[in-house]
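=== Given protein ===
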Amino acid sequence: MFFRFGSVLSLIVLIALTGTAIEKQILQLKRAITHQQYRLDVLLDSHVRLRLEAQRLGTPASLLGPLERGELPLERPKKPHRTDLRRNPSNEMNQPSGTPG
């Protein structure tokens, strides 16, 4: 009789401890998910802020003002020296392959 009572009592304690361990793990995972959601929100806010800043800096009005005041140097792009002949892609598409044109 005492053996049955002890085994039932130990089984109940084991089930309770297992449930507590599972709840602890669930809370830990929920905490990790909350932390990841917070980091995602911070990254999205940063992305939006940087995108707006890039759009603001890239507008012609903000570039023309400093350029007209002489704050930005105006340099013409250097033309690269091309050694190959210009191709006409429409002519290449109309000719069958293997035929010199």
Q: What stands out?
A: The mean pLDDT is 81. DSSP finds three helices and no strands in the chain. Helices lie at 2-58, 60-69, 89-94. The first helix runs from residue 2 to 58.
